[in-house]
Specification:
about 10% helix; about 475 residues; mainly beta; 4 helices; single chain
Length: about 475
């Protein structure tokens, strides 16, 4: 057990109350047992009379209430330890939260919130103020104003969830807003005070938009409850200028060794860069994104879609398409689109190192070996307009894009190849040979009752090995009643 003079010397050696040193790497052999043997580094911060932000009684001396605290972060989470001088220790009562205790706040770089708006197939309607509904939603201004109030409150809630508050309770580390403890915590008394240790696992961190994670904001609050009630609490904060849940007033720390997460860290990092509204939960299994997006919806002249809507993207669904030596071609869900769907990427990689990337959108892919690498055929098969809006917007359409990947994993620019449909309501079909040397698209006649009739060839593409390109033919649809040779 440390003697009082040694404790005071350590307090003097720690960083001042206006700064914090976040140690990188959880101490070897760390256990939340309250003994502090593994904490050989200098304390991360000190807290004393200068840190008091609330309380009926003023802190009279270091022995009355002061502390030194250690903070260390690693890929597994945040470890916290401290030694508190307190002339009247009260660690338990009927309500643990009103006993002497420590609280920790944590915030990480946040996703960008899109502007408050609703989008139709015609325009994006910005609604920064409630009164803007009178001009952008003339169809139903009252409905728009009710939507505006709901979304304003919802946006505040979404952002507040990105700042985590933890109570270090004798029963464990508790994150406010979640049931049960998220990690261990332990308090041990000594004459004139107490020591504590706790751990916040990375899975209990708030979501973040940054990968690798290098910027961390942290705050430590010390609550002294001599009378066992909130009205008698003395409240110290490591940041005296703190504002409740305002991460800008926390201590900002930049890690010298950024933390990488996920089963495929580089894919996570690339995907986040492509969509500022995306975030993830740090941890070894960080392969799922939440993306804030103002989702477009056809004929939305009065707002109904949340702003922002939330799209889930599962980066873990990786489909292998082929290999050339040690270069592998895969497709993977990677970004949210503006319609609430998910875009896939075509990615060439060597191990987990990304060599090249191309956005597939919703295209299907077919692959065949073709020197010096792989030949990829992208197939779009869907409505002629993504939202099904406009003249013949829901009409079936199929078309093709030809792409090559060389032995180094580099993709060529896609070459568009004509397909079928898009101008009538008739169904479309296509055939592709296994070696991608012959591609054909058809439009299928359909009567008023939906009964299918003749299949008409509209385009044919034949691969020419000498030129490395397709020779294309297009065919006019026959007039009604005329016969057609589709061979």
């Amino acid at each position: 057990m440390l003697t009082l003079p040694t404790t005071l010397l350590l307090l003097a050696a720690a960083p001042s109350s206006g700064s914090v040193q976040l140690h990188e790497g959880v101490p070897a052999g760390f256990k939340a047992d309250g003994k502090l043997d593994e904490w050989t580094q200098r304390p991360s911060l000190t807290m004393g009379a200068a840190n008091q932000v609330a309380g009926a009684l003023k802190v009279a001396s270091p022995q009355d209430l002061s502390a030194k605290v250690w903070l260390a972060v690693g890929p597994e989470g945040l470890a916290i330890a401290g030694e508190v001088l307190d002339d009247k220790v009260q660690l338990t009562n009927k309500k643990d939260i009103n006993a002497d205790h420590v609280e920790v706040w944590l915030a990480l770089p946040q996703p960008k919130m899109p502007p408050l708006a609703f989008i139709s197939h015609v325009a994006e309607n910005l609604v920064p103020k409630e009164s803007d509904c009178d001009t952008v939603s003339e169809v139903d201004p009252a409905k728009c104003k009710a939507w505006w109030k709901q979304q304003t409150a919802r946006r505040k809630q979404l952002q507040s969830e990105l700042v985590a508050q933890y109570a270090l309770s004798p029963k464990g580390t508790i994150r406010f807003g979640l049931n049960g403890s998220v990690g261990p915590a332990r308090y041990e008394t000594f004459p004139g005070g107490y020591r504590f240790e706790a751990f916040i696992p990375v899975g209990a961190f708030p979501r973040t938009a940054q990968a690798p994670l290098r910027d961390v904001r942290v705050l430590v609050d010390l609550v002294d409850s001599d009378e066992g009630g909130a009205k008698q609490e003395t409240f110290l904060s490591s940041s005296p200028k703190r504002k409740f849940a305002d991460a800008s007033t926390f201590h900002a720390v930049t890690l010298t060794k950024p933390l990488r997460f996920g089963k495929w860290p580089e894919l996570l990092e690339w995907s986040l860069k492509e969509q500022p509204g995306a975030s993830y939960l740090p941890g070894p299994g960080a392969d799922a994104l939440q993306v804030w997006v103002n989702r477009a919806e056809a004929y939305q002249f009065s707002p109904t879609v949340p702003s922002p809507d939330v799209t889930q993207v599962d980066l873990g669904t990786v489909t292998s398409l082929g290999k050339v030596g040690d270069v592998e071609l895969v497709s993977v869900p990677a970004t949210a689109d503006e319609y609430g769907g998910v875009n896939r990427w075509l990615v060439s990689r060597k191990g987990q190192t990304i060599l090249h990337m191309q956005n597939l959108g919703n295209d299907q892919v077919k692959v065949t070996p073709r020197a010096p690498g792989l030949h990829v055929l992208r197939v779009y098969d869907g409505p002629s307009s993504p939202m099904g809006s406009g003249a013949c917007g829901a009409c079936p359409l199929v078309f093709f894009r030809s792409v090559t990947m060389d032995a180094q994993g580099k993709f060529s620019k896609p070459v568009d190849l004509e397909g079928a449909g898009g101008r009538t309501g008739n169904p479309v079909e296509y055939t592709v040979s296994a070696d991608l040397t012959r591609i054909e698209a058809f439009e299928v006649a359909e009567d008023a009752d939906g009964k299918r009739g003749a299949k008409h060839l509209t385009s044919r593409h034949t691969f020419d090995a000498k030129t490395g390109k397709y020779t294309s033919e297009t065919f006019e649809l026959p007039e009604e009643g005329a016969a057609e040779d589709t061979k």
